Amino acid sequence: MPIVKTVAGQAEAAVLKSRLEAENIPVHLSYDSTGAIYGFSSTYLGEVTIIVPEGFESAARIICETEQDAGPIPPGGSGPPGGGGEAA
Fold first, then answer.
1. Do strands 47-51 and 28-31 pair parallel, antiparallel, or not at all (unpaired)?
2. Which letter does DSSP use for residue 72 in this model?
3. 10 Å Cβ neighbour count for 44?
4. pTM for this structure?
5. Closest Cα partner for 61 from 19, 10, 9, 32?
6. Which helix (H) or strand (E) holds 74?
7. What's the pLDDT score for residue 34?
8. 5, 47, 54: which is closest to 26 by C-alpha?
9. Backbone dihedral region for residue 17 (phi beyond 0: left; psi -120 to 50: alpha; all else: beta)
10. pLDDT tens-digit readout, 23-69
11. How far apart, in whole angstroms, are the C-alpha atoms of residue 5 and residue 87?
């Protein structure tokens, strides 16, 4: 089974796994249990490998590469800058 992506941490892996499963792509996560127990994400112990069956590889790669972190929420806001609809 091909490795689609390696990410830093369980949280990112869980998001990608959910996204792939929403597209009916079976997913297996491979990781060192020490990293999961202690919450490592910035060392090799925190790496999580996302693996899918061969027939799903190209679709999974496209999905994994298009998913992006929206970044931090700006101070004083919960949405994108400039688009709130709040009255001045």
1. antiparallel
2. P
3. 10
4. 0.68
5. 19
6. none
7. 76
8. 54
9. alpha
10. 999 999 998 887 667 766 666 777 899 999 999 999 999 998 886 65
11. 44
Residue 5: partners with Cβ closer than 8 Å, 6 or more residues away: 16, 49, 50, 61, 64
Q: What are phi and psi of 24, to 5 degrees?
A: 60, 35
H helices present in 1-88, as ranges: 10-22, 33-38, 57-66
- Angle of the 10-22 helix axis to the 57-66 helix axis, nearest 10: 120
Residue 81 corresponds to which tokens in the numbers above?
Answer: 């800058």
Place of tokens 């490998």: 49
* E strand or H helix at 4: strand 3-8
Nearest to 48 by CA among 78, 2, 3: 3
